[in-house]
Amino acid sequence: MMNRGIMFILLVIIAMPTVVANTMSLDEPDPPRVAFVMPTFSNTAYSIAFYNFYRLHIDDNQTYVTTDLQFLNVTVKPGWSWSKGLDQFLKATIDIMPQLFEGGRWTIIDERDVAAGALFLDNGSRAYDVAVCGFIEYVTAREYADFKRFVATGGTLVLNDACNFLAEVAYYPCANGSGYLSLVNGHGWAFNGTHAWRSVYHRWPEENRNWVGSNYWKWWEGTHYDGFDANTTHPISEFICSQYGTHVSGHYGAHEENKIENMTNTRIVGYWHFINCAEAPIEPVAAYQHDYLEGTVFHSGIMASEVLCKDIFVASFLIGAIRMGLGLNASHDILYEEMYPPITTTDTTTTSTATTTISTTNGTTSTSSVLDGADPYVIIVLGTLMGATGLGLAIVVTKRKQSFTEHLMRDRNALAGLSAWQSRISL
Question: What fold does the segment set 20-354 form as a domain?
Answer without folding.
Answer: Rossmann fold (3.40.50)
